[in-house]
Amino acid sequence: MSDPILNIALWLRNYVFSLVEYFGKILGIPPSMYEYITGLIMFLIGFLAFGLDILFIVWMERKVIGRIHNRRSVTETGPVGFFQNIADVVKLLVKEDIIPLGADRFFHDILPPITAAVTLIPLVVIPFAPHFYVVRLSISLLLAFGVMALVPGLILLIGWAGGSKYTLLGGFRSGLQLIAYEIPLSLLLISIVIVTRSLDLVTIVESQSHLWNIVRLPLGALLFFIVGTMELERAPFDIPEAEGEIVAGWRTEYPGIKFGLFYGTEYFHFFVTSSLFVTLFLGGWHGPLLPPLVWFLIKVHLVMILWIWVRLTFFRPRPDQLLRICFKYMIPLAFLNLLWAIGYVAFISY
Amino acid sequence: MAINEWAQEIKNSFGDAVEILDMKWKNHLGIRVIEPNKVTDVAGKLKGLGFSQNLLITAIDWINDNKIEVVYHFNKMDSDAMAWIRTNIPRENPEIPSIWRIFRSAVIHEIETYDLMGVVFKGHPDLRRMFLPPDWNLPPPQRKDFDPKMARAYDWRSKVYNAYNPYQEVISKESDTIYYLSIGPQHPAMHGCWRVLLKCEGDTILEAWPEFGFVHRGIEKLAEYRTYEQISIFTDRFDYIASLAWNLTYAMAVEDLLGIEVPEVARWLRVALAEIQRIISHLTWLAAACADIGTFHSMFLYTIREREKMFDLLEMLCGARLTYTLTRIGGVGIFKHAETIPDGWFNKVLEVMKDFQKRMREYEEIVFSNETFYVRTRGIGIIKGKAAIEAGATGPVLRAAGIKYDVRKIAPYMVYDEIDFEIPTGTNGDVFDRWYVRFREMQESARIVEQVIEQMPKTGPLRVKVPPPKFKVSGEGFARTENPRGEAMIYIIGTGDDKPYRMRVRSPTLCNLFLTHYLLRGARIADLPAIIGSLDPSMGEVDR
After folding, report:
1. Which of A315, B303, B371, B511 could form a disulfide with B287 if both were Cys (CB 3.0 to 4.6 A apart)?
2. What global pTM score does this model have?
3. For A183-209, what is the mean pLDDT?
4. Which residues of B touch A70 (CB under 8 A)?
5. Which residues from A are below 8 Å from B527, CB to CB?
6. Cα separation of A93 and A255, whole Å?
7. Residue A247: its chain B contacts at CB < 8 A?
């Protein structure tokens, strides 16, 4: 137990447990429930920290974009404009909730929170540090990517529920994008499994303690970075919400905090995909000197900055060109990567 | 062939039905057609003589004579010759055959004349309300008996509420896979308030109908209530991105009307200003067009930075940063002598231009070394060669189509004939070529500015003595210039009053934007912003 952050977390957990014990006795809660209640409170504390990190990421993206654009970005609200995001959320909360005539009211209301929740599910299996995860499953890799593949389906539903041609077009484009990137993504995951011989993310990270997967599978890392851009629906592959073509795509008709939820979802997704990239290719928590959690977060944020940089540099391809990129180049390259992985396991690592 | 031979040929063909007019301008062929129904025949003959584009149709409401005079302006691609057809039609029943089968570029001008002047062009393929609300029931707004007070009481919201009314015939349930998509009036790709109605199947556009007039201000009519000096302030508002270019066109038209020549220094300075304005306009285009095809405004911020430096230059001269009214009738601004130009302005211009050329190479590298840019712009929105002339393309769009046509070379005004510059042209006529042409034009403009600053005389009068502000004049004034967006033209008629009787403006953006009707056919929805962005829309000019 040399990890200071884990020590702090354990101390916090024990402290919360003693509090639960104290109040549980007063309120008459059966002692068998204490563990669960403590777990729930710890989860909420963790989620709060995650939310703060999301606010930091939004601020970071604004600042990085400003730097690349040669301008100052947010400066006024709070120190170096840090509280601008909070002001934005408050603004979105007080906006009028306008539901268009053609929209399906029930789905219009219910889909934004569902999408946000679904995007967050992969977080439960991502190992932030040794012993620092919510659950450990033997198939956590499958769970993470299976849940993430649900999001385009939800977006299609969102586009349909918006009751406008623009939202529907955006939804269809999202479905098209899923068809385009899902095959190379699956092939990449297979290559990871072959090299690390596990579907468990914790084992995958542990197997990279001496050599990161980015060295073992350089082509795979590059392809995953591109596929991740498509999965994130960030520029240059922000086709489902292409401003200038279909206004804001699938979120055109969603006002106020519903838009805010989508905006938050984008960053949840950003964090999740970035952590998966770090977990699969950049050795997860491994690193010298600093505590594992710090290393993990540093890597996650650096990968995010890389994605922001890409966002500002390339022009957006057309939907049909995206299909062509995926089917004509990405799938053959992913197969090549798979062959490389098999060869690596057969000749190099043995 | 010379004008006289053409005139002789027209006279031989049509005999007494036509009358050859004495034109005030060199190399202009004027034809008065006595019988309006003969207009198509005369136009066909002109096409046979090599006149290739219908630049403008002007209708003048001579209310005292109870007639409407329709004036057609034609140009040639290879010389500065122009042809005018003038004909009179009765005011009550203003009907005239359409010339669209001979000059397809006349389609949009006929629609505009029908809409604003009430002249019915028989045989026109799609004569409908383009600028006015679909259920407009007042007299045509540019006629002399139209009272602006009537328009004040009119419910203008029908322009938006009944927007689908003119399309009832085309919108039909042909099949389940076809749907209609209205892009605009408010849409990020439109750069202003206009609309394209698309008929789509899946991701492919089958038909497109552009529609304008959502911010129409009726400046041509307003000009009839203002003195000549006052109108030059309106000309800023035609194209707010390139206001100096329109200032120049207007000043040239009125100087032509008055018959005055501006001093040597002013002629040079005007060219420098027009070219700085061209760079500003193209930089603004580059900023917007890059954002259109998705770079998240990276280039936007860079080019706007260069634009600010150019604004500083113009601010030094007149204090304004967007609408300058700097090129005025008889000179440049309020300067009486070249010595009144602020100290160090010329050096600052050279400095900015040098810096700009350095930056330009940087931007060229950013854009043209980006593979995604090629993928996005090659082979879409193609219009080239004769088709572009036919459809009425103008300016950079026409040059990208491979036609070496530039008013600065064909019919040099001011001092353009003394300057060495090239006309960049494209080959394929696609979106990429339009980008390339505008990039090269910016570099050529910078070269022109440098030459002008080096060669121009720095002393001498900068302003000719013009009549007092409320001068009265009768006659015709005409000027055409190469604006950043294409060939601009102002035709102004005075009848001995201190206000013009009629002012007619040819907007190059209108001609180029009407091309969307042809260009968007068969394109994909994702190509729409790239194509529209490559046409450089400026709605102030269309809805003037």
Report:
1. B303
2. 0.87
3. 89
4. 301-302, 305
5. 318
6. 10
7. 187-188
**Are A315 and B294 an interchain contact pair (Cβ–Cβ within 8 Å)?**
yes
Collapsing DSSP to helix, strand or coil, B19 comes out as: strand
Distance from CA of A318 to the nearest CA of B (A): 6
Please name which of B53, B51, B215, B69 lies closest in space to residue B132, comparing C-alpha atoms. Answer: B215
CB contact under 8 A, A318 and B296: no
B263 vs B395: CA distance, rounded Å = 28
Contact B294 A244 (CB under 8 A): yes
CA atoms of B142 and B116, how far apart (whole Å): 6
pLDDT digits (tens, 9 = 90+) for B117-136: 889 998 888 888 888 888 88
Domains B3-150 and B219-472 agree in fold: no
Under an 8 A CB cutoff, do A70 and B305 touch? yes
The answer for B384, left when phi > 0, alpha when psi is -120 to 50, beta otherwise, is beta
CA angle B69, B75, B80 (to 5 degrees): 120
- Minimal CA separation from B370 to chain A, in Å: 7
What pLDDT, on a 0 to 100 scale, did the predictor assign at position B228?
87
For residue range B99-123, list pLDDT tens digits in order: 988 888 889 999 999 988 889 998 8
Domain boundaries, chain B: 3-150, 219-472
pLDDT value of residue A79 = 86
**Close Cβ partners of A59 (under 8 Å, ≥ 6 residues apart):** A74, A81, A82, A84, A85
Residues B305, A243: C-beta atoms closer than 8 Å: no
Q: Which fold has domain B219-472?
A: Cytochrome-c3 Hydrogenase; chain B (1.10.645)
Ramachandran assignment for A314, one of left (phi > 0), alpha (psi -120 to 50 degrees), beta (any other) = beta
Residue A239 · residue A177 · CB < 8 Å: yes
Residue from B327, B361, B162 nearest B233 by CA: B327
Of B118, B116, B144, B140, nearest to B130 by C-alpha is B116
Query: Rounded mean pLDDT of B295-318?
Result: 86
Q: Residue A318 and residue B376: Cβ atoms within 8 Å?
A: yes
Nearest CA among A249, A316, A341 for reference residue B527: A316
- Mean pLDDT value of segment B408-434: 89
Nearest to A317 among B291, B298, B372 (CB): B372
Give the pLDDT score at B166. Answer: 63
Helix ranges (H only) for B264-344 are 264-292, 298-318
Enumerate chain A positions whose Cβ falls within 8 A of a Cβ in B. 65, 68-71, 165, 169, 235-236, 238-239, 242-247, 311-321
Beta-carbon separation of B295 and A246 below 8 A: no
Q: What is the pLDDT of residues A130-159, one digit of tens each?
A: 877 878 888 899 999 999 888 888 988 898
ipTM, two decimals, is: 0.81
Yes or no: say if A220 and A281 are a contact pair by the CB < 8 Å rule: yes
Asked whether the predicted pLDDT for residue A303 surpasses 90, the reply is: yes
What mean pLDDT comes out for the span B242-250?
90
Kindly state the tokens that stand for B490: 């102002």
The model's pLDDT over A215-248, given as tens digits with 9 standing for 90+, comes to 888 999 999 999 999 888 887 888 888 777 788 8
Torsion, Cα of A25, A29, A34, A40 (10° steps): -120
Give the pLDDT score at A1: 46
Size of interface A-B (CB pairs under 8 A): 77
Contact (CB, 8 A) for B43 and B99: yes
Q: For the domain with range B3-150, which CATH number is right: 3.90.1170.20, 2.60.120.340, 3.20.20.70, 3.30.460.80?
A: 3.30.460.80
* pLDDT at residue B12, as a whole number: 85
pLDDT in tens, B149-178: 887 878 778 777 776 666 666 666 667 778
